[in-house]
Design goal:
The protein is α/β, with parallel strands linked by helices. 32% of the residues lie in helices and 14% in strands. The strands form 3 sheets. An 8-stranded parallel beta barrel has the order 3-4-5-8-9-10-11-12, surrounded by 6 helices.
Length: 372
């Protein structure tokens, strides 16, 4: 049986063995932005998953661009060194797999507690910092407002994204994703809910999209041209008067013209007023609409948990790739089990070649070994 989910795919010169992407997943386990041994263990197991590509979590381009004090960063030499060292070790003990990174700035969602400590905004008096945003509008009504960015600060943030991209290239990463979703800074510029500026970066669609497009262009210029670069967007705010799927299609057209290789179609995150119709694959129609309207490659995300579900998404042309987060944390061998269910094969570490249960031995490619 031929499986669409396990057919190869290319992004520029980057060859992907199948259509399964490990999504970026925040671990809140960095120290001063630096990767720790938790990341070594976390990355190691996901690099052994046999997915097509692993994406390092949302990685801040500045210290105040972190969501929490535990968020990963790539804004100084210590961050670069810690990430590079641990990634080198993790890759050494896994089959070859491309590794991407998602570069991000938290915007008004910065200075937050880690989730298991409540996730709320940390006041400056308790060790937090003043978040920044397009406009001085807080995420939640009871929070102190963020600082509205001026022109000089916008230039600085663009430079920070470029600097982080250059560091990512130096440590040998294969692909880069720009985080324009989930209510973080670049999404805050896009959405009329959070952007009330009266200058060239606010008001009309063109103005609200201006800064994210400028950041994309600057990073695309700094990122090696033979390496792919994509963008994660919230394709709809799920709020009346907010960002819409039609806006996303228009943005995707401009990103594609500027050299974007994929759109990672997520949604929501800009407002607690959002009304999200949760259900299996609830965001797949967003990826489908963007793909069919613009012919750009898309990643489908959100409550994709079953092999046949993922297979149908790819086989029907709803998306080119499926990106999985929570399902992969729950089952880091998900691609192995999907391959077994769909009659496909994956490459795995030799040490695990004897692991498949009876009836699933075909899942591991080249797993013909002797024993004495």
């Amino acid at each position: 049986m031929s499986s669409a989910l396990f057919t190869p795919y290319k992004l520029r010169k980057l060859a992907l063995a199948n259509r399964i992407i490990v999504s970026p997943m925040c671990q809140y386990s960095a120290v001063d932005g630096c990767a720790t041994d938790w990341h070594l263990v976390h990355w190691g197991q996901l690099l052994q998953s046999s997915a097509a590509m692993f994406t390092i979590e949302a990685t801040a381009v500045s210290a105040i661009g972190r969501i929490t004090y535990g968020c990963l960063g790539l804004y100084d030499d210590a961050c670069e060194e810690s990430l590079g060292e641990r990634l080198t070790i993790a890759r050494q003990y896994a089959p070859p797999m491309p590794v991407a990174i998602q570069l991000a700035h938290a915007g008004r969602k910065g200075s937050s507690q880690v989730p298991w400590e409540g996730g709320q905004l940390i006041p400056i008096t308790q060790g937090g910092w003043t978040p920044v945003a397009p406009s001085a509008i807080p995420q939640l009504e009871h929070e102190a407002p963020p600082s509205a960015l001026d022109a000089a600060s916008l230039d600085q943030i663009k430079s920070e994204f470029v600097g982080a991209a250059k560091r990512a290239a130096r440590v040998g990463l294969d692909a880069l994703e720009l985080h324009c979703a989930h209510g973080y800074l670049l999404h805050e510029f896009l959405s009329p809910i959070s952007n009330r500026r009266s200058d060239a970066y606010g008001g009309s669609f063109d103005n609200r999209a201006r800064f994210p497009l400028e950041v994309f262009a600057a990073v695309r210029d700094a990122w090696p041209q033979d390496k792919p670069m994509g963008v994660r967007i919230s394709a709809t705010d799920w709020v009346d008067g907010g960002w819409t799927i039609e806006d996303s299609v228009a943005l995707a057209r401009r990103l594609k013209a500027g050299g974007c290789d994929w759109i990672d179609a997520s949604s929501g995150g800009i407002s607690p007023a959002q009304k999200i119709p949760l259900g299996p694959g609830y965001q797949v129609p967003l990826a489908r609409e963007i793909r069919r309207s613009t012919n750009i490659a898309t990643m489908a995300v959100g409550l994709i948990t079953e092999a046949k579900q993922a297979e149908a998404i790819i086989a029907s042309g709803d998306a080119d790739l499926v990106a999985m987060a929570r399902a992969m944390l729950w089952d880091p061998r998900w691609p192995w089990h999907a391959a077994a269910a769909l009659g496909a094969e994956v490459q795995t570490p030799q040490q695990y070649w004897r692991s498949p249960p009876r009836g699933a031995a075909n899942v591991i490619a080249h797993a013909k070994i002797g024993m004495r």
